[in-house]
């Protein structure tokens, strides 16, 4: 194996209609493991935003009754290819990833009353109804993937300000449509 095969490459690819099916297939697997605990399950992240280039990683957001119960499913999640990462930098979350070098899925689990759930859903829904901002996000991701092809941390840091800007817009937008 060459050194390049051991390094995760940041790739942003054209939209793929398979992403929604991959989400559905994977969410059904997780539902079969954690079904009693799951209250809601959603496709989030760039692959859930219609028509934009994205890293081909399916992000799944799960709301559960009790976050402290989730860890008991770690062994079963490992059996279907996931690596449990615990909170992984966000208090009150459980994070699982599938594939170290060739990443295919991320699972973000929060207790049902977590504000992180609403934030992620607002971001997705806002982007799907605001194509100009979605296009700006796509362009940013392409530029960052080109500049930081082998540095996921720098790639993510480069998106941070934009994501915070959209989170604010999405929160305001959600308040407007709720009224």
From TrEMBL:
- Coiled coil feature spans: none
One Pfam match, by short name? GrpB
Superkingdom classification of source: Bacteria
Q: What is this protein called?
A: GrpB family protein
